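Standup notes
- HV: blocked on the assembly model, inputs below
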Amino acid sequence: MQRLRYQQKAASGAARLGTMTTRRGAVDTPAFMPVGTQGTVKGLLPEEVAAQGAQIILANTYHLMVRPGAEVVAALGGLHGFMGWTGPILTDSGGFQVFSLAGLRKVEEEGVSFRSHLDGRLLRLTPETAVEAQEMLGSDLMMMLDECPPPGAGRDYLERSLERDARWASRALAARGPRGGALLGIVQGGVHLDLRRRSLELLAHLDLDGYALGGLSVGEPKEVMMEVIAATVPRLPQDKPVYLMGVGEPADLVACAGLGVDLFDCVLPTRMARNGTLLTPRGRLNIRNSRHAHDPAPVDEDCGCLACRRFSRAYLRHLFMARELLAYRLNTIHNLHYILELMASLRQAIRHDTYQAFARQFAARLAEDDDPGEAFTEGGKHV
Amino acid sequence: MQRLRYQQKAASGAARLGTMTTRRGAVDTPAFMPVGTQGTVKGLLPEEVAAQGAQIILANTYHLMVRPGAEVVAALGGLHGFMGWTGPILTDSGGFQVFSLAGLRKVEEEGVSFRSHLDGRLLRLTPETAVEAQEMLGSDLMMMLDECPPPGAGRDYLERSLERDARWASRALAARGPRGGALLGIVQGGVHLDLRRRSLELLAHLDLDGYALGGLSVGEPKEVMMEVIAATVPRLPQDKPVYLMGVGEPADLVACAGLGVDLFDCVLPTRMARNGTLLTPRGRLNIRNSRHAHDPAPVDEDCGCLACRRFSRAYLRHLFMARELLAYRLNTIHNLHYILELMASLRQAIRHDTYQAFARQFAARLAEDDDPGEAFTEGGKHV
């Protein structure tokens, strides 16, 4: 059974246009996956996520394991039945949250033990139970459990870790049931090109359905991230999708698609929306800014999203300042629409082999930003 | 110019079916007005409010005066343009919030001075400025400024207050511009039937477009409230709508429509929704209850709302426990749908002159409530 099929349709430099066929339908790549952490893309109905252009979403195994529990979701028809999203769903392994959220972690050959961030329960994730949980969720694209090495981990640590990851990848494959979804491997190795090569060589001979780049966008300089991606992607199997985990900054999407990345996910557009930061072709717009208080214009004249077609900056600012629920919803619709339209434009450019011109024009419009002071800050979190 | 027309279509006992025609369309009465305090019915788009059956909504002048300001709303096309609701809007005068929310109040013949609950600014509301603010908002049905007497106010206080109210009603009428909306008077007098009579006599000779009952459901025993309504409604002009302010408990809607009330508003269904309390024909359901954790059934098998057609109790509970934005939205849709369907059934019963049977059956189903412990508590407020 082929659980995931990737077919390249066109290329423009290293950028590639393709179709990824899952058991729940096709996805045009390069694609961005909105994040539905707890079985919902925050504030939106599934049809609203799809209406912005999403063909696939991501859900977080760790969050769903601790609440409401993978068995509960399984009994209610899996994530698709539970939340009403009918397209493909990619789930992470739970590992990333174990390493970033949970307490009292212990990594051993067998797996990782940790305490739930919600109630302190002692839990355990192994390559096998991570697959089991994802199968209970009904995941179409499962991720192998890997270690997310601590920041500043040295070469030796990273090497031992990626070798263990490769053994975990074999165990994950062996644990997958006959009805399990596709399983993607994760290439680690930090910023060391030789370790990245070693990691992908160890994974390449396994029958994985695709490959992800892990451990990037975790604080390293942007040019280092780009160098690692540029050196790694060409060595991955060309007939399988390449997924760059956790990257969603618009400029990074454009740049990394240019290096041949097919799949992206990130909380950035949805989280920024809830913090009042709106994405536009000319950069970020902080809807809290008092200059919008009387402005009848939409956030972006050229945007076709519901928020821009129907409401003024003044109204969106009012909703946000008044902490109205509708603010988070409209802002989320706008940012997802922006990101998913950007991906559609990228695909169009690759199809016409005009990627370079597209990337240049994208950068030039960003540089026009009339509001450079509106940088995104994590502060002032609303919801 | 007739700003508001009421036409009675049928009656069943004291209950009456009618059509209230505003400059922005007709409203079938008895009607319930969802509350959009700050220029949005919390969490919903205007079309979602309409889809549940709402033909008219209420907005709060006080809240919109202090943020974003009535002038700001006026410059953006009034509330209709600002928020995108095209049907009629009733606005309160701002008085109720001045008396319940704002600080340092001082009531004089001229009007009331108070401090904004947001920033402590000293503000003033007079019969004239209350009309002016409502006209700036583009209100279709404006309420006169009245005093909301303090709890426990004695007869003498109430009498002086309602006499001042009558003078304020004349001033409000005189202040209304040629393009202003309908203006409704407010009958006060507490629980004293003779004071209620005095209040309505003072107002009856004014050319007001409708009459509201104020100062009820403020802590008095329910049978006292019913007695005041029963004694007052028959003395009001029969060719004008009667509005009972701030009442929205389902049993009260049924009972008070039976006494001839045409219009209701209340935050109860929407606020309860955000606290996880769902209204059903068999009473209140607390979605937090762990017995719903694995339940694939909808909240109400017979309910046609989006939440009940598409999602399980288990999913709604998960969303609520995880404090997901979608929880508040789906719960709000359900509760508004329930209340607005209840009003439609009431109208149907009056049309067929079966109000008494309807009210009996309604009470009998409530008495079947399988979950009497799920009383609504103000505690545990989410948003």
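- HV (later): unblocked. The longest helix of chain B spans residues 325-351. The interface with chain A takes residues 38-40, 42-45, 67-68, 72, 75-77, 82-84, 293-294, 296, 306, 310-312, 314-315, 317-319, 321-322, 324-326, 328-329, 383 of chain B (CB under 8 Å).
- Next: hand off to the docking folks.
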